[in-house]
Amino acid sequence: MVSGVATGGALVIRGEAGIGKSTLLAEVVSGAPGRVLRASGVESEVEIAFSGLHQLLLPALDEIGGLPEPQADALRRALGTASGETTDRLVCAAVLGLLNRLAERTPVLVVVDDAHDVDRASMTALLFAARRLADRPIGMLFAVRDPAPRAVDSAGLAELRLSGLDGENAARLLDELGTPVDGPTRDRLVAATAGNPLALTTLGRSADRGRLALDALSGTVPVDSALRAAFTAQLQALPTETQAALLIAAADDTGRLDLVESLGGPLDPAEQAGLVEVSGGRLRFAHPLARAATYSSATSSQIGRAHRRIAAALAATDPPRARWHRCLATAGPDEALAAELETDAHDAEARGGLAATASVLLHAARLSPAEADQERRTAAAAHVAWKSGHAGLARTLLSRISGNTPTQVRTRGLVELYSSDQVMALHFLRRHARAAHLPDQAGELFFLAADAALHADRLGDARRLARQVADLPGFRDYGRWLADVLELRVVDAEPWEVFEAAPESVRRSGAHRWLLPMLLNRFGRDPWAAREFGLAAHEQLRTTGMLAISAIALPWLVELECRLGLWADAAEHAEEGLHLARDTGQQPREADFLSQLALLAAWRGDASGCRRHARLALERATPVHNNLAAAQATWALAVSELASGDVEQASDRLAALSAPGLPTAHEHIARLAAADAVEAHVRAGRVERIAEISIDPSNPSWLQAVLHRCRALAEDSEQHYRLSTSDVDDFPFERARGSLLHGQWLRRERRPAEARAELRVGIDLFESLGARQWAERARGELRACGGSAPRGDVAALTAQEREVAALAARGLSNREIAARLFISHRTVGYHLHKVFPKLGIAGRGQLRGFDLEP
Fold first, then answer.
1. Which domain does 138 fall in, by range?
2. What is the pLDDT of residues 9-67, one digit of tens each?
3. Taking each helix axis from N to C terminus, what angle separates 825-839 and 752-769, rounded to the nearest 10 degrees?
4. Co-location of 85 and 118 in the same domain
5. Is the alpha carbon torsion for 811, 816, 818, 820 positive or negative?
6. Which helix (H) or strand (E) holds 632?
7. 139 secondary structure, DSSP code
8. How many distinct helices (H) and strands (E) make up the chain?
9. Cis (ω within 30 of 0) for the bond into 660?
């Protein structure tokens, strides 16, 4: 819109101070063709008639002589180059005539910044010309502050109103300034500044990430002097009593009109000036920076007095908030108040108010006379800040602590594990676990160290850590279950059983009580129950504000949903997790989600999406030694190549998963990808790469199917082909891959009828999952043995499957369907899992296209 005006037309750009009007004008000028005439309003010259025109037309004075004599004389007199009086009408005509004359040779762009500070006579002439440009190559741009001390009449002209940056662009701006921040801090800064670019730039240049997070948490950010001046000019024009009332409103920040009115003066003048809005018993500042300017322009004694008055008014009705205002009014140490604030913080945390908890704990630490209490409360604030996604703030607070309190060690371990190098995290956590005095503390640190070892492909270390966990009082079952996960064995416990068996320290941590059952039930005996638990855990963590923990939990949920064939849900959760990981500064978890998205893209036949996500996953995984994600991304690339027929490249990639010392090697991923590796090696004629394959009956059924597929390919064994498709009805992709390979083998054995039956099963499942390349490959095999793929038919459903599908088509959840039909929600999931391939669809959203009602 703006660039178009550069070659003809007029536009008035409006926006608050610092919103980017001048930057936008400069950008247009830099690329404008032809001649540019510029002027900027100056408040001290606003009463000098034609001062703006003089500034604008000074470079074109020698062109005035070409105008008709009355116009030339009028313009010279207006600009002070000739004596005598003139009329506004003649000056207006002269300005338009001069612009037209200039435009006969080259396009002309007129740019007027801060037009509200240009004298009225000049603006009258310029706006007169702007409304009469016709089709001439003349562009006119006016930038006007809104609200402005003087009105600019833009009637008849196009307007563009600039607003603040959104979260994504605010983050980009802070990144460019060298001050990247986590998502929660970014969101608070955007809210506190309404996305004002100048305010954000000032903050980004004047503070480190920890300081920014502290400012954002307080809700009152420092205001640039130019921005403060824009608001304080309005404030100072108000009655003294109204200014005092606004300070009460800025200090309280709850919007309670009754409180402000009881402690301050009349608000009508502020409302009439557009500084505040009053409605329904609530007061709000029209712009967040107005509140910040009100607060920051007051003296420290004025601010302290405001908080003391608010505290006194709230003492009887809201003691915690009264204590908060007492705290803000208190400069020196006060242990009694600090202890009360610490209690309030724990209450706020229990209610899910993590950001408020961290802020209260920080003030409690500030008021603590004893250094030990300061460090303990600061460590607690750091832990809460990390849980709520403020990784930068957590690091800043941890750097203030010299000792090794249990909370400090635990929080630093969490930051290292989930935001930094996995090998370094392993060493830190293991060292402090061994030094821990209490079994509960040691158990949690050992468990976290095992997670780091798992990601870093240090499975030997992880197994030793699992044994150490099992040796601790209260952790025996947890250690045994962890050992099962590390050996890829079925964990013989339901997720809620694991949840209830949590040792006391895990129960107290809250977050890890939800996380550990998800990790352990990756290989649980009931994957549908594990998924339901995962959904419940995700909802609990999300609604209680534990953003960092939610990003940690989601990879295990995505893994389960991938395995169960719920690919749309898996992709949605992976994208959500990726955004959370980025927002909370968790680079290793970013790599996890990107590698999962790469694998999903490979299974679906989206080669470009697979390559894009895999490249990003490897970029993020390799520097932090996240071998698990790097290996999974490599596996994804190999699956895509295998599906497209590039078997040699796939063979090389899959061999790298088992090569010790490579950043893409990982023992678990190599085992999960074993069937793909054997298929690639066989098809590439590199059978010497096939390692000996053993099948452990304690492995989950889907993994046994993968390993039977390996044996079938390596040994050309019908028994293993059949076993690769048995007991995997809950895992449609594994079932489909087994059916495809079995069908191919049957065709080669000249058993076409049996081959067609297997291939049709594979096609149905591939199509229901949206695995396009795999479905096409299976259809090619089916055509080769004289068959064609069937279409989905409601008649193929059993009575109960049809009943379940009909309710799902109406939008009911699994639990709602279960309640109606008096069956378990897991049974509902089982039936739907059968329905989708029979109808040839990928998910419940497609059920509406079928007539399912009885």
1. 2-161
2. 889 999 888 888 888 898 888 888 889 999 988 877 888 888 889 989 988 888 898 99
3. 120
4. yes
5. negative
6. helix 627-644
7. E
8. 46, 7
9. no
